[in-house]
Here is the input.
Amino acid sequence: MSWLKAFFAGMVGAVLITIMLSIAIVSGFRVMDFSMMWGTLIGLPIGWPAWMVGFVIHLLVGGVFALIYAALFKVFSGAGALRGGLIGIGHALITGLLIALLPLVHPLMNTGRMSSPRPYFGSHGMPGVLFYFALHIVYGTTVGWLYQRQMPAARETVEEGNLHIAA
Here is the structure.
């Protein structure tokens, strides 16, 4: 298992989530921008610097979550887009509940200056919930697919009459 490759796959997944959120926001769908949320969570005022710092944090968090995915791939004997997408559903189920706690710690949410997303983006109704799950399925699918592609394929070699499997 390569932790660095998993971390990279997670960062790519986080970039895709950021793109999806940006398209949704520009299209008029009011959802929480993870980059802005992270940047303002550490005390920066709403603005471009908060978004940039938050984006870097989001990339790092995406990388860390991918390490958990890689450990699960090892437990389940393999990675892949389907397996990653299924783990993404579990990821969404757990983090969707935890996101409800953000107003307790976020300096702008607990004062009402930034709206709370509620569990699973529930503040935006069923479209928000479906979008929240879609984000995590895309993330998981990306991590699973990239992680599988980055890992060397098992290959068989015959050496002096003995079969060896190298990974």
